[in-house]
Design brief:
228 residues, alpha/beta, Zincin-like, 2 domains, four-stranded mixed sheet, three-stranded mixed sheet, 40% helix
């Protein structure tokens, strides 16, 4: 197998070389700036068996989770609940999403990208409102003050905390159950105290979310369900 990959050389990396496979089967290798090309190729070749296994698993998952068509009858998650979509087009009404009785009512022309846009906009709005409330709740409980909150379109991570304590969350997180959302919120807020994933960090998370391992596993197993 001739492995094609994108290489990112980072001045922040000191020693380690890492490899990631994206949702579209793209392979990305990150390495320190001065790592020899031969060493990087050798690293990728050593990972070949793992890469092939991961690509086969990804292909299987993609086959079982086809792309959304945004048509009536499809289901989309909101706070852990699978909710049906009813798509229609009434030019005399405002376009967009109304959520009622655990159902999405989407008024939009039959255009896949446009329908996706309106659903994503609705999720973003809900995510900002809900996550702001959860961050405020834990801010009072934990005595931690984030530098700000941002909602993103990230596909590979649920949240992050910057060096200046700015919190970012993927809008897709609002699709997860409330207890899983709280785990991600607490996880990122605890990085205000510990900028790492040491045992000390995980013990801080454990004090607030005793079943955090269960929530983390749920997110891993359902990642493809929580998507647009």
């Amino acid at each position: 197998m001739d492995i094609q990959y994108s290489l990112i050389r980072s001045p922040k990396r000191k020693k380690t070389v890492s490899l990631q496979i994206g949702n579209q089967s793209e392979i990305t290798v990150q390495a320190p700036v001065h790592t020899p090309a031969a060493e990087i190729r050798r690293f990728v070749e050593e990972k070949q068996a793992w890469i092939e296994k991961s690509l086969r698993r990804q292909a299987t998952l993609q086959a079982s989770h086809p792309k959304k068509a945004y048509e009536t009858g499809e289901t989309f998650y909101y706070l852990g609940e699978a909710c049906f979509l009813e798509a229609f087009f009434d030019p005399l009404e405002y376009p967009g999403v109304v959520f009622r009785s655990n159902c999405f009512f989407l008024n939009c022309p039959p255009d896949r990208q446009m329908r996706k846009h309106y659903l994503a906009a609705w999720y973003r709005q809900q995510a900002r409102s809900y996550l702001t409330r959860r961050v405020d709740f834990y801010k009072q409980r934990l005595g931690l003050t984030p530098g700000g909150l941002r909602i993103t379109s990230a596909e590979k991570r649920w949240g992050s905390c910057s060096e200046k304590n700015h919190l970012s969350f993927a809008f897709r997180l609002i699709m997860a159950p409330p207890q899983a959302v709280d785990y991600v919120v607490v996880h990122e807020m605890m990085h205000i105290r510990e900028k790492n994933h040491s045992s000390k960090f995980w013990n801080l998370v454990l004090e607030v979310i005793p079943d955090y391992k269960m929530q983390r596993l749920w997110l891993r197993e359902h990642q493809r369900d929580l998507d647009l």
